[in-house]
Amino acid sequence: MDLMTIKDISPDQVIFWQWGSISLNATIVFTWMVMGLVTIVSWLITRHLSTDVHMSRWQNLLEVIVDGMRNEIREISQQDPGSYLYFVGTLFLFILISNILSIIPGYVAPTASLSTTAALAVCVFAAVPVYGVIRRGLGGYLRQYIEPTVLMLPFNVIGELSRTLALAVRLFGNMMSGAKIVAILLAITPLIFPIVMHALGLLTGVIQAYIFAVLAMVYIASATRVQEQHKRKQEDRKGEES
Amino acid sequence: MDSVSLIGMASVFTAGITIGIGSIGPALGEGRSVAQALSSMAQQPDEANRITRTLFVGLAMIESTAIYAFVVSMILLFANPFWDHVISKSGG
After folding, report:
1. What is the pLDDT of residue B39?
2. How many domains does chain B have?
């Protein structure tokens, strides 16, 4: 926590390098670091993939992660994980890695900045209609806004916006509070107790990464799933009529 | 009383009140949901995985209310716009 003083509420305020109006703050630097780490490690591992029985332990690790994510997505969305994996899995891995790396001294999680979390939440906000339109068509997607009655239209739109805000503020608040509590405790009880809170912060970070991914998946699934229920209902009705 | 001390006093007081009152509701809600989840897990140990997953998601949703209160109080304490405005106006 040497990088951020107790008064800095987000790593945006820590500026490493400035040239004119272009500035390089801690959020950007650590985001690039996480991106580079994830990309390089997975590139190194996937360079020598084998379909043989004997595989490297790193490939085994990646297979466990990817397979676990596929199973979770399948259970949550009740659909084939297929194309959801790329989006939700990337979100999960990025947030997870950036939260876990905060055990390294001097590192500040980029998710402790509202800019990063807002950007991730906007990605989810944009991905929901994209997946919805691909799955159900434009009309089918737009129809869910007036699903029970037309009266619900404003509430559905407000809900869409407020859940994006909630997604951003939840992740930011959790990560920021973890860093802030450790910083405050360091000033009060310097030796042992901050470590305990730091461990708790790591746990919160992992859970928040999971929750962000699950909520993104739930939002996407709610925009794509309804059609199948609708179809099933129509088929039931047809079956009853015939 | 001048506006600097008034704003400082109001900010500190409101920050404490915000996080104090704002954490009551989520605490009660989380306690209820955890108790309910534990009793369901005792009744149906086979479904423990599904219950735990739903519990975590639900807890995060409940907790976010407290987190909003926390963010507001942190903004009041460390990034208060009114305080900054008054300080910059008085040339500090």
Report:
1. 95
2. 1
